[in-house]
Design brief:
Layout lengths: L1 E2 L22 H5 L3 E3 L7 E3 L26 E2 L8 E8 L8 E12 L2 E12 L8 E14 L2 E16 L26 E17 L29 H4 L2 H6 L6 E2 L2 E2 L14 E18 L18 E22 L3 E18 L2 E17 L3 E13 L5 E10 L5 E12 L3 H4 E3 L4 E3 L5 E12 L4 E11 L2 E3 L5 E3 L3 E15 L2 E11 L10 E15 L4 E14 L5 E4 L4 E4 L8 E12 L2 E8 L22 E11 L1
Antiparallel strand pairs: 1-4, 2-3, 5-6, 5-34, 6-7, 7-8, 8-9, 9-10, 10-13, 11-12, 13-14, 14-15, 15-16, 16-17, 17-18, 18-19, 19-22, 20-21, 22-23, 23-26, 24-25, 26-27, 27-28, 28-29, 29-32, 30-31, 32-33, 33-34
């Protein structure tokens, strides 16, 4: 995994068998309780506070963020020979919850040049009327490493096509063992939306001086950097070792299919030239189209601007960012390594909704700094906007990691202060279904997080506090609004991974509290993936079969929750019912033989057995119980 902010690499263990059925959903790899609207192709809603929005994330695409690559991260597979992965999930011809195809391909094109390709495709008819969805994403990433030049670049294309049913008309009709979901009436029968997202981003580095050591991962060592390891398992490399310490001090063991390969010297990974010229860019093109051919559906919209004929709304967003800076690396004494990068950044943004459109520009400064030695690491990131829309916008983020001497404990502190002018679409939208014209001011947020983790005990705990001012949210009428006051969110997150003989159990519990009615949050969010792991050896053939079987449980306490508006794709406040207080239970079995992994999963086993409050959003029930199976296959040439 590559950090596009500073060009650093994070090496992760390559998984040999996936623990927990939720890992077959990209959604659940972000956090165990992201909710989709009853269909894996639809937008998703988190049940934890994720911070104030930034200008680069229009509100109508936030629900799809878990399906996309992270903001400043790029997945890249480094392999000495061509490598491929194929993942196919289905439930057979009666599968109303969709089929998923995931493919990965990586190969060295030439000395110092590697290409990685990622494909995800989901088709999901859904359980209820007018709920068909399809979603596809294609990513191509290229890396070029030469003695005095390095390029990391990628292009992403995501498309989603959704039939919007507005939820079930009478929630009680969706409950019961023998209810046919296809016969339940819904609010919208002729509505649909399409979302397209194209993104090109990259970072190039020019060494001003000839580097004294190698600056690339050598071709002779096959290294795989996957994106499938669950972040919530404490004790994995990604959780226990900070990037800078791992890259500059520690010897990193690279895992490939349970075989520990040669240790890689960090000096071969981290570019050690003293000075570099840095250029990075980010181009995004996002468009959303919504139509509703039924004029009677106007009764569904509280603020109705639907024409007498077929109503159509469209929004589009273009974002182009350039950064130009200088970076320098060196040592203080014999033990402290320092890294600094700073420069200017320019942003050009165009936005439009139906007949309303406009363009803005921003100009500012950015800086990155880092100090590392054998036992601690400190990092600072800063940005400030000096010209254009959102004058005075800033971000200041300071993180620190400290390894307690002679112990496996690591302490982490994260401090962040941010002020951001709101998403332009929160200021003005002109459409058939929705219209608003606002003059919203900047949001501010101050965050402090303290975390302790133990790689031996495989556990971690984090305390967090966020102070938010001038929060922007969607009110009960699905219109953007602003508090004009200050509030806070407190959180405590505990994770523990147990291994007792063949028993494995990965557990996470999140406590959170806020007095703000504008931020509906459950008090407790908990999840567990508990299973048995067996290594079955065949003496005659010398083969190995890995077997896992167990269950996943996800739960949140009751909270007010959100409603969903199809015309904008926004989640908004509601006072109708309380949601949550419902466990979701999945059981699974996974087999791995050599490079092939098979799984079978029975999802939402407790459907209609533990109550009927399985509505993550008002009027949107989750999927009924269903069977899923699939294959995960690796190829090495």
């Amino acid at each position: 995994m590559i950090n596009l902010l500073d060009g650093s690499y994070s090496l992760l263990e390559f998984d040999t068998i996936t623990s927990g059925s939720q890992q077959y959903y990209r959604l659940y790899s972000e956090f165990p309780l992201w909710h989709e609207l009853g269909n894996i192709g639809f937008s998703a809603l988190p049940v934890k506070w994720t911070g104030i929005s930034s200008l680069k994330k229009p509100f109508f695409v936030k629900g799809f963020m878990p399906y996309l690559t992270k903001e400043y991260q790029m997945n890249h597979y480094y392999a000495n020979a061509p490598f491929a992965l194929l993942n196919y999930n289905s439930g057979g011809t009666q599968d109303l919850n969709g089929q998923l195809i995931k493919a990965v391909f990586s190969r060295p094109v030439a000395p110092g040049i590697r290409l990685s390709a990622f494909l995800d495709f989901v088709t999901s008819p859904g359980h209820y009327v007018n709920q068909n969805a399809s979603q596809s994403s294609l990513t191509l990433n290229l890396s070029i490493t030469k003695p005095r030049y390095k390029l990391i670049a990628g292009i992403d294309r995501m498309q989603a096509s959704l039939e919007e049913n507005g939820g079930v008309s009478t929630p009680g009709d969706a409950l019961g063992f023998y209810v046919d979901p296809g016969s339940v009436s819904v609010n919208l029968k002729g509505a649909a939306s399409k979302l397209g997202w194209t993104r090109f981003r990259g970072r190039q580095e020019f060494n001003i001086f000839e580097p004294k050591t190698a600056n690339s991962i050598p071709d002779s060592i096959p290294i795989l950097i996957p994106d499938s390891i669950p972040n919530s398992i404490p004790g994995s490399i990604s959780d226990s070792i900070p990037d800078a310490i791992r890259d500059s001090i520690l010897q990193v063991s690279v895992i490939q299919d349970s075989i520990t390969l040669e240790s890689v010297s960090p000096d071969t990974i981290q570019n050690s030239s003293r000075a570099k010229l840095i250029h990075s860019l980010d181009y995004q093109l996002i468009d959303r189209y919504y139509k509703d051919s039924q004029t009677e559906s106007g009764d569904f919209y509280l603020n109705n601007f639907v024409n007498d004929k077929e109503a159509q709304d469209s929004v589009n967003f273009k974002y182009f960012e350039n950064r130009l800076g200088l970076a320098n690396t060196g040592f203080m004494g014999d033990s402290i390594k320092w890294i600094f990068e700073g420069g200017v950044q320019h942003k050009l943004i165009h936005w439009g909704s139906n007949s309303l459109s406009g363009s803005i520009q921003q100009m500012g400064l950015y800086g990155l700094g880092e100090l590392t030695n054998e036992s601690w690491q400190a990092r600072v990131r800063a940005e400030v906007n000096l010209l254009g829309y959102g004058f005075g916008n800033y971000l200041l983020n300071m993180t620190g990691n400290y390894f307690l001497p002679d112990t496996p404990w690591m302490l982490t502190m994260d401090l962040r202060s941010e002020s951001q002018k709101p998403d332009l679409f929160l200021q003005a939208v002109s459409g058939n279904h929705d219209q608003w014209f606002n003059n919203l001011s900047s949001q501010q947020e101050q965050v402090i997080k303290v975390k302790a983790s133990n790689n031996v005990l495989k556990m971690s705990g984090e305390l967090g506090m966020s102070f938010i001012s001038n929060l922007i949210y969607f009110d009960e009428y699905a219109l953007p609004s602003q508090t004009g006051t200050s509030t806070f969110v407190m959180s405590a997150d505990i994770a523990k991974y147990f291994v007792v003989g063949p028993l494995r159990s990965n557990n996470n519990i999140l406590f959170q509290y806020t007095p703000a009615e504008e931020i509906p949050l459950p008090l407790v969010v908990a999840s567990t993936s508990t299973y048995m792991h067996h290594d079955i050896h065949f003496k005659n053939t010398g083969g190995l079969l890995e077997l896992e079987y167990g269950l996943d449980i996800r739960y949140s306490t009751a909270y007010q929750g959100y409603a969903y508006r199809p015309s904008t794709g926004a989640f908004y406040l509601q006072n109708e019912i309380r949601l949550g207080n419902y466990p979701y239970l999945d059981v699974f079995l996974t087999l791995r033989v050599k490079r092939t992994r098979f799984f079978i999963r029975y999802e939402h086993v407790n459907s209609d057995l533990t109550g009927g409050n399985y509505f993550p959003v008002v009027n949107y029930p989750v999927k009924k119980r269903f069977l899923k199976y699939g294959v995960y296959w690796h190829f090495y040439d």
